[in-house]
Fold each of these.
Amino acid sequence: MPLRRLKSPTAEAIAATLGEDGALIVEDVLDSARLMDVQDQMAPLIEATHHGRDNFSGLQTRRTGGLMARSSAVRELVMDNTMLGAARAFLSPWTEKILLHLTQVISIGPGQPAQIIHRDRLAWGGYLPRDIEPQFNTIWALTDFTEENGATRVVPGSHRWPDEQRAEADEFDRATMTAGSVLIYSGSVLHSGGANQTDETRIGINLTYCLGWLRQEENQYLSCPPEVAKDLDPELQALLGYTSSGPALGYYTDPYGHPSIKQPESALKSPG
Ligand SMILES: O=C(O)CCC(=O)C(=O)O
Ligand SMILES: [Fe+2]
């Protein structure tokens, strides 16, 4: 089954296609001015990033996180109305609120072999029942994605396969797309980064969302600490996790705060 390619779809159309196929491409989301803005902000951050230290992260691949604290342009991508609406619609059967799971530029350099085929939901181990879909993923292409430079390998339909089913070669498609287009895939679909057999770097930004009651892949409280988060859009603060989820999750007492009720003298005295 080939990846479906949509142009200017509604959030509902994205969520519906993702439910059916497990992955799709939305073409030409960013115009050249917005694309350049994101590329310009990412270039120095990528430059300062070390290569991966194992085969899964990629010895010729750079992974650059912490983007909410460091890039106004990427904050806009995370808050994109259509993508955020699609993420909320897609995950709504299992949660009331969603969280920002990961922000990461993936720069696949020359000579990088293909990544092992996987499902991103394995971040939570095998504990989540398969009928719960935990994750909505995007990869925003900052360079063209080609078969030669490492376009993501995807097995459409495999989000419904049992764990042990292996994909045959003719069941893969490649997320070839022009810079400014977006690959969308669920946490349950089989996929991997492709091999880069060129002398250019393939660059995409992986922005992913998860159910509000799961632990996020990227520790957003460390990546975007309170002194930075306090100036961000309240909706983005909530996506980062600076909010409560459900009746109890996110409970918090400010340990450095000033209690409005004065402590009794006796409580302040040191023992002895
Ligand atoms: O870079 C890509 O195309 C996909 C990478 C990926 O699937 C991952 O790192 O989990
Ligand atoms: Fe992945």
Amino acid sequence: MDDTKLLIIGAYGQLGKALQAQYPDALAVDSDKLDITSPEAVNNFDWSNITHILNAAAYTNVDGAETNEALCMKINVAGVANLSEIASKKDLTLVHISSDYVFDGTRDNHTEDEEFSPLSVYGRSKAGGDTETTKTPKHYVLRTSWVIGDGHNFVRIMMGLADKDVSPTVVSDQVGRLTFTSELVRAIDHLLTKSAPFGTYNVSNSGKPASWADITREIFKLLGRDDLTVTDTTTLEYYAGKENIAPRPLQSALNLDKIRATGFEPRDWQENLKEYIEKEQAK
Ligand SMILES: NC(=O)c1ccc[n+]([C@@H]2O[C@H](COP(=O)([O-])OP(=O)(O)OC[C@H]3O[C@@H](n4cnc5c(N)ncnc54)[C@H](OP(=O)(O)O)[C@@H]3O)[C@@H](O)[C@H]2O)c1
């Protein structure tokens, strides 16, 4: 993979940072240098040395989207449409990241060909972005769930609670698998270097799907904090009385057969979590 021909967009986000670590010689920009919602900015960008767009940019505030629909759609749909159009015009490969939120979570194992059934504004916007991406022939849509990297994320929040000796109440009826950005980057690199067929691929860590409450128990165990307890609650109870909360899919586990068939074996989420926590503690 020739790093110098890659453009990373959304470079300061969780995935963007991991992509920069993997591809240090790639051109990396965030909204300050390239606002994907501006067709002029995208058109006038210097594409002369670029062969691949790695789009890690997105509006990712799931609850915020409920009251900021226009902005969410502008970034996650119109912005992606701008990238898809330029990819077609310049014959570039577009790598884009989708979400389990494009589904309503009634199936316990989501395959790539499941029809969209989003519950929230964010979910609708991600489905729209997928549709725009697939309009350019050379595309990879990586559909992922519960992303953990260098940024604001669930594992860091729970580590922070443990630091403060808090025994939290955590939702136990949403089930899925964590996806460490290192795995997403490894999957992107795999698809590109193997020249896998273009299309949509589910990517998460592997292992037994678990609830947020169970993941919290695992985090506390790995931290050696067996003194802390985790009390189960339902999504309905947890958000009762709170306003502008986006509905969440209850079943988020993604079927990983398709990417496995290309020769990629996702790492178990528990093994990856252990490594992540050790690195966080060493900081
Ligand atoms: N986080 C999850 O649990 C999760 C789950 C499933 C799928 N995903 C998907 O995974 C991808 C990466 O997520 P992440 O957690 O790494 O996101 P993130 O940390 O929120 O980063 C998103 C980045 O996009 C940038 N951005 C926003 N608007 C932009 C614009 N108009 N032009 C250019 N850049 C813009 C942001 O920059 P500014 O701060 O400057 O706006 C930010 O650096 C996204 O597509 C997300 O939808 C995430």
